[in-house]
Amino acid sequence: MPQLNPNPWLFIMLTSWLIFSLIIQPKLLSFTLTNPPSNMPTTTTKTTPWAWPWT
After folding, report:
1. How far apart (Å, rounded) are the C-alpha atoms in residues 44 and 10?
2. Mind telling me which residue stretches traverse the membrane in this protein (predicted)?
3. How far is Cα 55 from Cα 51, in angstroms, rounded to an integer?
């Protein structure tokens, strides 16, 4: 059964993870955010209860 032979697929998987971890991921993480989070103060809004017409 050739599906159980890990010889070529193990090498392909390890190579792809190494490429992703060492080359692609640092390039992606170096981008700056276009909309960085700001430290805005949290404001609470006053809500009024809903006036149901049948109560």
Report:
1. 54
2. 6-24
3. 8
- Cα 47 to chain center, whole Å? 33
- Using pLDDT thresholds of 50, 70 and 90, give the confidence band for residue 16: very high
Say which residue the tokens 């949290």 belong to. Answer: 42
Q: What is the pLDDT of residues 25-52, one digit of tens each?
A: 888 888 877 777 777 777 777 888 888 8
* CA nearest to 24, candidates 12, 16, 13, 34: 16
CA 54 centroid distance within chain? 46
